[in-house]
């Protein structure tokens, strides 16, 4: 009798160990309702203008100022240009101007769309999320758009030292202040996925940094209000210092949350705004177009029609210095290859044919 009882207790102990192993393992629980792997797959992008498709044009209805929604989601956005199987749904939640708190779970009643993480939670009920790409932070403490505007002002006033001089000490501090906010947003995304029954290895969370829209190789004929009104020193600082330091801050945030990281800080080299010769025959008052697809970023761009409308006027230059359709396509090609691979970190750099490729990097 004791032998039977001992064997029974041993069996219970083994079952308990197996149950514990299942609970702590990196696998889906078989009892979860509506298991994620039974749902149709989807790739989701969250963040700001760089992933919403700002600069790509043909913005989705409802995101071009309607009811205060200026998210400017474009069919040219990266998620729509990824090389994905036909059964994968592409979902763009990114919104031009978004800060990290909006990408996270902190709702903003004054924003037209609210928390992107909350919208992601709704998607987990209908889709099996395979990849989440996040690009955010530039609109937080760094205030990249404001810096660009200050650089234009420094060009107009011929300020000694340009905009770069006062930013040399302030910029690293701004990037450091941004980092915990991005970390918080990424943790909110992780929490959404945890609550939906995902384990960390069940999906890929990718953080992208930013490409520099301008550089020191501006065509002299475009170093003005027709394209890129910046002092040469400021152009060098933006491309060679400001953008790389911002990238390192985002790399640290990705490391802290176990996210994969794709460095775009060198992705635009040679293709920045105003690096192509201006085309001839441009009507007066219009920005000359770049030659073919040589430039991947918009020049100083003014929507003159919107400028005459009091409601739309504050957004009349919103497209300036963002990726154009050719730029979004080039960046999407690199992102797509990175998503298909297993590298934890990589940098988008041009190969011998000029195509962007994700080159693996070692975590520092």
Q: Can you describe this structure?
A:
This protein is of the alpha/beta class and 364 residues long. Helices cover 36% and strands 11% of the residues. The protein is built from nine helices and seven strands. It has helices at residues 2-24, 49-52, 100-103, 116-123, 144-157, 164-195, 232-257, 304-307, 325-340, and strands at 41-47, 89-92, 128-135, 204-208, 260-263, 345-350, 356-360. Strands 2-1-3-4-5-6-7 form a seven-stranded mixed β-sheet, with helices on both faces. A hairpin with a 5-residue loop joins strand 6 (345-350) and strand 7 (356-360). It is globular and about 60 Å long. It starts with a helix and ends with a strand.
């Amino acid at each position: 009798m004791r032998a039977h009882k001992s064997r029974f207790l041993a069996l219970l102990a083994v079952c308990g160990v197996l149950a514990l192993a299942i609970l702590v393992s990196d696998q889906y629980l078989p009892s979860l309702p509506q298991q994620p792997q039974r749902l149709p797959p989807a790739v989701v992008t969250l963040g700001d203008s760089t992933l919403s498709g700002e600069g790509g044009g043909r913005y989705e209805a409802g995101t071009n100022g309607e009811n205060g929604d200026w998210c400017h989601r474009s069919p040219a956005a990266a998620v729509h240009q990824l090389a994905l199987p036909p059964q994968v749904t592409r979902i763009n939640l990114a919104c031009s101007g978004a800060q990290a708190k909006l990408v996270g779970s902190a709702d903003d009643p004054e924003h037209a769309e609210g928390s992107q993480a909350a919208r992601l939670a709704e998607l987990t009920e209908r889709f099996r999320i395979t990849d989440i790409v996040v690009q955010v932070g530039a609109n937080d403490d760094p205030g990249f758009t404001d810096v660009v505007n200050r650089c234009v002002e420094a060009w107009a006033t011929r300020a000694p030292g340009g905009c770069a001089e006062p930013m040399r000490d302030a910029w690293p501090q701004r990037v450091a202040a941004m980092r915990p906010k991005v970390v918080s947003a990424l943790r909110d995304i992780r929490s959404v996925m945890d609550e939906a029954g995902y384990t960390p290895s069940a999906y890929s969370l990718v953080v992208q940094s930013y490409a520099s829209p301008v550089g020191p190789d501006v065509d002299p004929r475009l170093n003005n209000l027709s394209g890129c009104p910046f002092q040469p020193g400021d152009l060098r600082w933006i491309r060679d210092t400001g953008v790389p330091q911002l990238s390192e801050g985002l790399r640290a945030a990705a490391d802290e949350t176990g996210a994969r990281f794709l460095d775009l800080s060198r992705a635009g080299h040679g293709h920045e705004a105003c690096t192509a010769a201006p085309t001839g025959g441009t009507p007066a008052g219009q920005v000359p177009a770049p030659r073919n697809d040589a430039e991947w970023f918009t020049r100083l761009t003014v929507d003159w029609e919107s400028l005459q409308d009091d409601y739309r006027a504050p957004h009349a230059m919103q497209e300036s210095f963002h990726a154009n359709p050719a730029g979004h396509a080039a960046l999407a090609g690199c992102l797509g290859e990175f998503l298909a691979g297993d590298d934890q970190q990589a940098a988008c750099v041009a190969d011998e044919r000029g195509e962007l490729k994700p080159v693996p990097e070692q975590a520092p």
